[in-house]
Amino acid sequence: MRKPVIAANWKMYKTVSESRKFVNEVIPACTSITEVEMILCPTFLSLAHMCEDLQGTPIKLGAQNLFWEKEGAYTGEVSPYLLSELGVTYVIIGHSERRGHFGETDSQVNRKVKAALSFNLKPIFCIGESLEQREQGITNKVIEKQLEQGLLEMDQSSAINLTIAYEPIWAIGTGRSASLEDAREAISFIRQWVSRAFSQEISEKMPLLYGGSVNPDNIGQFLARQEIDGALIGGASLKEDAFIKMVTIANNIK
To answer: What is the CATH number of domain 5-253?
Structure first.
C-alpha cells in the first residue's frame, strides 16, 4: 500500500525566522504521525536552518528547484550536489510556475530529474495542462507529452524514486480546484502510463499527487479517492494549523 504524501510548497514566502517558527509549532503535532510522508519545501534561504530543526522528526525537507550541473560557473543556481550534501530529501521539478515564468522546457526538466536522481534526491515531478488545453479536450495528450519528454531515458531503477504531481495550471493559486472526477481521471491516466513505460510494480508503488488550490476543506475529498495518494499544496500550507489539519486528515483517511 502506498504511503500518503503531504508536500508543502511555500514558493517565495516566509523568512528564515518565520520558517523556523512554523517548524517548531508543527513538530509536536506531527511527531506521532508515521503513516504520512510529510514534506516541507521552503525557499533556499531556509533550507540549512530547517534541516537542523527537522533532524530526528518524521518531516522531510524538500527544495523547490535545482540546476542540473554538480558545480561550476552558474551564477544564481543551486546544484543537486549542494542540496544532497545539506541533507535535503526531495526536490520539486517542472512546476508550472517554473515552466511559465522562467521558460523551463521539457528537455530542461528531464535534465533536472536525472541530476536529482544521480545525487539520491527524490524528484516531485510536476505536470499539468492549461485551461485552454483542457477546454480543447487534449489534457491526456499534454500530460503524455510531458511524461514522455520529462522522463526520457529513465530506467526502472530510477523511476522507483519518483513522485509525480498532477497540477492543472488553471487550478494553481486560483482558488479553483479540479473536480474530483477531473483529478481522478488524470491521475488514473498517469498511473496507466507509468505501468506501460516502466512496470506494473512501479506503477503500484509510485505516489501520485494532486495539486491545485488544495486546502483543509477539500483535501479529504481528494484523498478519499483510491487513485490519489496525496497532495502538493501551496498557499494553504503556509499556516501551521492548516498544515497540521491536512496531515491529520491524510493520516485518518489513508
So the answer is: 3.20.20.70
- H/E/C letters for each residue in the chain? CCCCEEEEECCCCCCHHHHHHHHHHHHHHHCCCCCCEEEEECCHHHHHHHHHHCCCCCEEEEECCCCCCCCCCCCCCCCHHHHHHHCCCEEEECCHHHHHHHCCCHHHHHHHHHHHHHCCCEEEEEECCCHHHHHCCCHHHHHHHHHHHHCCCCCHHHHCCCEEEECCHHHCCCCCCCCHHHHHHHHHHHHHHHHHHCCHHHHHHCCEEECCCCCCCCHHHHHCCCCCCEEEECHHHHCHHHHHHHHHHHHHHC
**Domain range list for the chain:** 5-253
Q: What is the pLDDT of residues 172-217, one digit of tens each?
A: 777 777 788 999 999 999 999 999 999 999 999 999 999 988 999 9
Q: Which residues are catalytically annotated?
A: 95, 167
Taking the complete model, does pTM exceed 0.85, yes or no? yes
